[in-house]
Each structure stands twice: as C-alpha cells, then as structure tokens.
Amino acid sequence: MENLSLAISQFSTFGVLVALVIGCLWGLLAGALPGMGTVAALIVALPFTFGMSTESSIALFLGIYVTSVYGGSISAILINTPGTPQSAATVLDGYPMARAGQADLAIGWATLASFIGGVFSLIVLIVAAPLLAAVSISFGPAAIFAIIVFALTCIAWVSEGSTIKGLLGASVGLWLTTIGPDDLTGLTRFDFGQQELRGGLSLIPVLIGLFALSEVFYRAAFYFTSKPSDVQNVGFKLPPWADIRIRAPQFLRSSIIGTFVGILPGTGATAATFVSYSEARRTSPRAENFGKGEPDGLIASEASNNAVTGGALIPTLALGIPGDGGTVVLLGVLTIQGLTPGYDLVNNNPHILTGAFLMLMVANIVMFALGAFSGRIFSRILGMPEPILMGLILMFSLVGAFVVRGNPVDVTVCVVAGVAGVILRFGRYPIAPIVIGMALGTTFETKLRQGMISARGDFVTFLQDPIALGILGLTALVVLVPTLKRRKAR
C-alpha cells in the first residue's frame, strides 16, 4: 500500500498526466499515419525526455506505446493501408466493413477490442513482472546467456522473409556492440583506425537510422509513383451488447494469444496478430465471413496486438530484455533516467514500477476515449501532405540522434544506418533482429565471458546450470518443431 500511495502521489501530478495525454495523442496520430509505426513515434519523442522527470518520461512513452499500436487500425479501416505492421490483419475485415458503409462500426469494434486486449495484458503484467523479477535474482551468467539466446532465436523465428535472414540480422546486431572499448579488458576493438569509433556505437542513433530515417528514404524513393488515398469522413459506433456477448470467447482467446506472444522476447505484435487471426479463422463459427467484413477478424487482430503491449513489458521490466522494437526504445529511456530494469527496478524503485502500471491503465482509458471522439479528425489528418510529414520526421530524428550523447558522429552513424536500412528493406531483410541483437549484445558477451571464466574455459561445465539447460531446451524446441512440421507436411 505504501508503494501504491507513493506511486499515485508522484504519477498523478498535472505535468505527468499532461505528458501521458500528449503521448497518447501523438501515438494515435503516428499510428494512423501509414509508415510511421510505434518505434518511429517513440524515437521522434525521445529528444523531449531530456529535461523531463522520470515519471513524465515514462508516462509519455507508455502513452505513445499503447495508442500507436491501436492507431494503425484507423488507416487500415479507412484507406486499406495499415498504419503500422501490427494492423496488417485489420485490413482483411476492417476495410470491407468500411466499404459496406460500416466504417464507424468497424472503428468501434477495433477500439473496444484494443481496450480489452490492453487491459487483459496489464493484469497479467501486474501479476507476472514482480514474480519474474524476484526469480531472476537466482539467474547466473549461464541462465542469462541462455535467455538471450532464446530471445534472439525467437526474433529469427518470426522474422519476415526467412529464419536465416533473422539470424543473420541478430548476428550483425551482436557484432555492432563489439565496436569500441571492451567492457572487461578496456581494449578498443573494431575501430578500423577511426578515432570516432573508439567510443563505440550508441544504440539510439542506430535505432533511429534503421527505423525512422530508412522509412523517410524509402517513402521518398516511391513518392512520385504512389497514388493519393481517398480519405472519407467517419464516426464512431459501439457494437450492440448482444453482438459483444456472443463474441466474448474471441476477445478472451485473442487477448491470451497476444499476451503470450508478447512475453516471448523479440516476437512483437505483428506475429501475434497473424497467429491470432489464423486461430480465429480456424475456430470461429462465422469463419465463412472472414475477409468480407467479419467483426471476429477485427477482434482477433486488434485484441491481440494491443495485448502484446503489456506482454512485451514483462521481460523488459522484469529481466531487462526488450519484448519488441518499441520496448527497446523504452529500455533506453529507463537507462537514461538512471533506472535498471529487472530485480533492481522491482526492489529498489517499486513505486516507479507501480506508477508504470497505473500509467498503462490510464493510457488504455485515454486510448478508448480518443478512439471514440477523434475518428473524423484523424480521417482528415491522414490527408496531410507527405513531404511535410516526412520533413518533420527527418528533423526530429536527427535531433534525437545528436542529443543522446551530444556527439556529432552519432548524426553520421544515424544517416549511415538509415541508408543501410533502406538497402535491407529492398533486400527483404528484417530490421528488428539487428536492433534487438544490438540491445542485448553487451549483456550477451559479458555473461558468456563471465560464465566461461568461472568454468575455467569449459563450455560444458558452463552449461550445467539447470535453469540454463531448461531454457536452451526450450530454444531447441522453438527451432526444431516448425522444421519437423514442415518436413512432416512434405
């Protein structure tokens, strides 16, 4: 109770609540604008956290994180273009409903499903995060090494394109963390004789370049060949209670799938959406209507992708392992504010963790309210001239890359990463494994070397930790089961 009262007193101030509402507004707008996405929305807001309090920074980023995932459904329903990859499955039934003159009802279903999925995952987060953080104190170097191997394997497994491309991306991310000084010996590695690289690469400029700048460059490449979208005015209409009641099992099933997939490090909402949609199509009594404007399809997509928000925060807050691309940025914000996710956060700053839970709940409520009142407004915003929008993203991205360390080299790194991101997109290589591999790289190397030192260089002895063996066994299943299923199908 003491932590709760302290959290309420610190997170219920006017400044914190204003930061949360601004974050929700920006997240909803960024999610509704095709091509922006959750990570880009978080990155654009990153420079504003310098000088903000810890509570305001957390509120701002949680507001953006929650509503940007939901915002993608608006453009998916109205213009047949998902604002975020997480809403790709929303198009399948949302746009047919809009074409049938039920755009307001489609937005109502999407908003309700997003709210239920978000609240469900929050309840799981409140229960699971402290328990997992308490258990994590017993994790030695071998166990943490095994968890990171599992996380990187999950990223590769669900990566767009192929598992090999995902593993390659994760390996590149791990290698990028070795540039600069060695944390154990202090020796400089892989600086290629460049003075600027002796301090190593910062995660944030690389993250900004690979996601935000690459999106600007990619859209610029196709600007003259793209066709303007026909945006129509819409409203908001909640579905009848009878329709909601008969679809209660679908709400629950999709929320469970989204939360579980979100807990798996590195998977993200896009994978959860398609898993949930496929399961809904398999089990729904109205399966023959899928693709024609069936609310079950909207529920499956939107409840699962918003349930990922709470699920992905479980490994992020409890273990310091980002659950998806958005939580990588959130992890960076916590580090900037001097907080260490995991056991230290739960035990030394429990009021901060409790406050984050409160802000996540309020963010879901604000998201529902904004969805109910802003349908017509955001349908007009979708018509904003693209050059203006991309110019603003470019400006905020470069500023964000510079202010992290105040080093002009980071701006160059950001631009180079942006160009590399465009090349990767054309080659259909996933970007998320690179970023998450880089976020986990330092811990991965440190724990591996610490464990090997304690085991006197014997890798077999290093892996005799029962927790590590269990996690590596689970990793083997993640790799082998899909392969065996494909072989059996052939």
UniProtKB/TrEMBL annotation:
InterPro entries: DUF112_TM
Keywords: Membrane, Transmembrane, Transmembrane helix
Pfam families xref list: TctA
Domain (DUF112): residue spans on this chain: 17-436
Superkingdom per UniProt: Bacteria
Coiled coil: none
TM stretches of this protein: 14-46, 58-79, 106-132, 139-158, 199-218, 255-277, 352-375, 387-404, 467-484
Name of the protein described by the UniProt record: Tripartite tricarboxylate transporter TctA family protein
Organism: Pseudooctadecabacter jejudonensis
